[in-house]
Design goal:
It holds the Pfam family Pkinase. One of its GO terms (molecular function) is mitogen-activated protein kinase kinase binding. Belongs to the protein kinase superfamily. CAMK Ser/Thr protein kinase family. Tribbles subfamily. This is TRIB1 protein. It is a single chain. The protein has nine helices and nine strands. The longest helix has 20 residues, at 60-79. Helix 3 (60-79) runs antiparallel to helix 5 (143-160) and helix 3 packs across helix 9 (217-223). With 254 residues, it is an alpha+beta fold. The chain has helices at 8-17, 48-55, 60-79, 132-136, 143-160, 170-179, 190-199, 210-213, 217-223; strands at residues 2-4, 27-32, 36-41, 82-83, 92-94, 102-104, 111-112, 119-120, 141-142. A three-stranded antiparallel beta sheet has the order 1-3-2, covered by helices on one side. A two-stranded antiparallel ribbon has the order 4-7. It folds into two domains: 2-41, 2-Layer Sandwich (Phosphorylase Kinase, domain 1); 46-223, Transferase(Phosphotransferase), domain 1, CATH 1.10.510. The model is unreliable at 230-254 (pLDDT under 50).
């Protein structure tokens, strides 16, 4: 990528601040010209948005394997004081031709936070991934919780093949997001339904954190030997109410 010389250090600061992680793109080389900086990143083999469009939707085993890498990258950023903001499938690219390994790229517009204060006021982003609190508030919102909402949109899209909230008219789309009502098709397994609903909660404080998502039993159930996609149910699950003073995160897993 090419950046103005006087701004390039700000643009690549998130890459410098982040400890190395296998699911996050690294800077390979920087060449400085008279007025521009040329930043070279690791080679990729296509992005997740295009891949899902070509596949329509993914089988749960593949979705779990790839989504776990997505969440791992986001959790690493959050634990390193970086909030991603405009988080979407297109920002994840494949590291290999077999399309089994993912990396997060495009960190130039992320937010570096201080301590535990992840309050943001920035409202830019892809409409399909925006969270209700961003639409509803005139002040600040939790950047990490908004990232988790975007993860919920991603997981739904991987398993269903479309966004949970969609409409050609932006005002109608935003109205649907504010209500937070969506349908999950019958082919999605109960544990996957549980995880989706744990992420797409209207109340930000009731969503799982990125590190907690990695502990959800859906991953263990789907990735264990012998699992098949025939293990699906037609009955929907209701995510148990989460009480913020509870230290046992398993209490709000289905």
């Amino acid at each position: 990528q090419v950046f103005p010389l006087k701004h390039y250090q700000d643009k690549i600061r998130p890459y410098i601040q982040l400890p190395s992680h296998r699911n996050i793109t690294g800077v390979v080389e920087v060449i400085l010209g008279d007025t521009k900086a040329y930043v070279f990143f690791e080679k990729d083999f296509g992005d997740m948005h295009s891949y899902v469009r070509s596949c329509k939707r993914l089988r749960e085993e593949e979705a779990a394997r790839l989504f776990k890498q997505i969440v791992s990258a986001v959790a690493h950023c959050h634990q390193s004081a970086i909030v991603l903001g405009d988080l979407k499938l297109r920002k994840f690219v494949f590291s290999n031709e077999e399309r089994t390994q993912l990396r997060l790229e495009s960190l130039e517009d992320t937010h570096i936070i201080k301590g535990e204060d992840d309050a943001l006021s920035d409202k830019h982003g892809c409409p399909a991934y925006v969270s209700p609190e961003i639409l509803n508030t005139t002040g600040t919102y939790s950047g990490k919780s908004a990232d988790v909402w975007s993860l919920g949109v991603m997981l739904y899209t991987l398993l269903v093949g479309r966004y949970p909230f969609h409409d050609s008219d932006p005002s109608t789309l935003f109205s649907k997001i504010r209500r937070g009502q969506f349908c999950i098709p019958d082919h999605v397994s109960p544990k996957a339904r549980c995880l989706i609903r744990s992420l797409l909660r209207r109340e930000p404080s009731e969503r799982l954190t990125a590190p907690e998502i990695l502990l959800h039993p859906w991953f263990e159930a789907v990735l264990e030997p012998g699992y098949t996609d025939q293990e699906t149910g037609t009955s929907d699950q209701i995510v148990p109410e989460y009480h913020g003073d509870s230290d046992d995160i398993t209490s709000f897993f289905c």
